[in-house]
Amino acid sequence: MAKTKKQAAQAPQHGYEFGGPLGAAAITFGLPTLLTVFAFACNDVSGCPAPSLLHPKSLDLEALKQEVGWPEDGIWGLASWKAMGATLAYYLFSAILYRLLPGTEVEGVELSSGGRLKYKFNALASSMFTLVICAAGTYTQGADFPVWTFLADNYVQILTSNIILAFALAIYVYVSSFSVKPGNHEHRELAAGGHTGNMMYDFYIGRELNPRITIPLIGEIDIKEFIEVRPGLLGWILLNCAFVAKQYRLYGYVTDSIVFITVIQAIYVLDCHFMEPAILTTMDITTDGLGYMLCFGNIVWVPFMYTQQTRYLSTHPQRMGTAGIIGIGAILLTGFAIFRLSNLQKNIFRTNPNDPRVAHLKYMETKAGTRLLISGWWGIARHINYLGDWLQAWPYSLPTGMAGYQILSAGTNAAGAVTMLDGREVVPGEARGWGIVFTYFYVVYFAVLLIHRDGRDDEKCRRKYGEDWEKYKKIVRWRIVPYVY
């Protein structure tokens, strides 16, 4: 059968990203290791970081194991059937809510090979249903609500369970992708940059663009859209709440800093759920295949890396005060306004360029038939929304201050210590400042992520628009930060 023009559009070769096969392998095995190291190195047993890590020249492995709470049965203690069972039950519960709760059906963007997929959106309803149950449980049982105690007490094992699931899901969609047939069978197609022929790279980047699975009694689920907005994002909120409850169990009170972070991150997640249909125009849905990168990123990296601050504060409480809340809140609101208003402007323009809210904006016509905004938010920088997103990252870390603490035995009577209900004392000590490796890692990582994502989008647009893209870049000069980058 002769190729159609749309099918031929898929043909251009895409070079390797993320350092190619070696980079993909390093990320695939390196990031799970990093999260596990973070879980032990910053702990509620000896400190953050563990005291021995501050003196690497005299490091004793056995002493370090005691300080970080290494499992008695070694590496096997990193996982448990109980944690795996609970994790699977959580995913199943999320899938059931997806199927049973009412939602809105929306068509996605047109596939490069023709046709559109339908999506059901009810992530906000699903999350609110779950959170109401947890709120009721907390109201009746307080900080000892079993969900909170289980998450905090089995943190490492739950982390391991999700890592295992990420690998299992990535393997499944990789193998399944080889059943994609030419001719747009059931609207299935391979991602343009996901079938290079290198197994390691394709496994990581994702071969199939929109894999779906049919589960008995539940029905069909778009796997990528499901994991993008449901279990990982809601898990982010649930873990934060578990650490708030843990702080109360340890100290008998809850500080403004941990509440502030938990609330603003919950708003961020619920706002994402409220704007769920907007995901259909993102690179993750329209361009990237579903591979290990998105599987791990959505169900492991997001809920476990993004909660490092509340995990830290659960053991080392900090008070922000009114001035701190106002200052950090101003940074947050500025970032949120830039992020939300710019994205809203783009979505309105794409949906209806004659809408009165965007009809006054200037744009550039391209040979590809697409209009590129060159005024308004998108005339300031090509990814002005990324600046807003990054500004929102700072209020997640700033409440931890000059992070770092040591946990001393009861009765030490150290100056400036905060005392747990069991008598143990927590002081900054010589760990002061070293904890920022854990609590500010997100800010640095997110900057690198956004810069890399900008580069990927630039390459995609260069291939799509050719000379028009170069003309566009001369008009809108700045990538993310006006007059800086």
From TrEMBL:
The record's principal subcellular location, in a coarse class, is: membrane
Q: For this UniProt entry, which segments traverse the membrane? A: 21-41, 79-101, 121-140, 155-175, 250-270, 290-308, 320-339, 433-452
The record, for Gene3D superfamilies, names:
1.20.120.1630
Query: Which keywords does UniProt give here?
Result: Lipid biosynthesis, Lipid metabolism, Membrane, Oxidoreductase, Steroid biosynthesis, Steroid metabolism, Sterol biosynthesis, Sterol metabolism, Transmembrane, Transmembrane helix
Q: Which domain of life is it from?
A: Eukaryota
Keyword Membrane present in the record's keywords: the answer is: yes
List the protein's name: Delta(14)-sterol reductase
Q: Where in the cell is it found?
A: Membrane
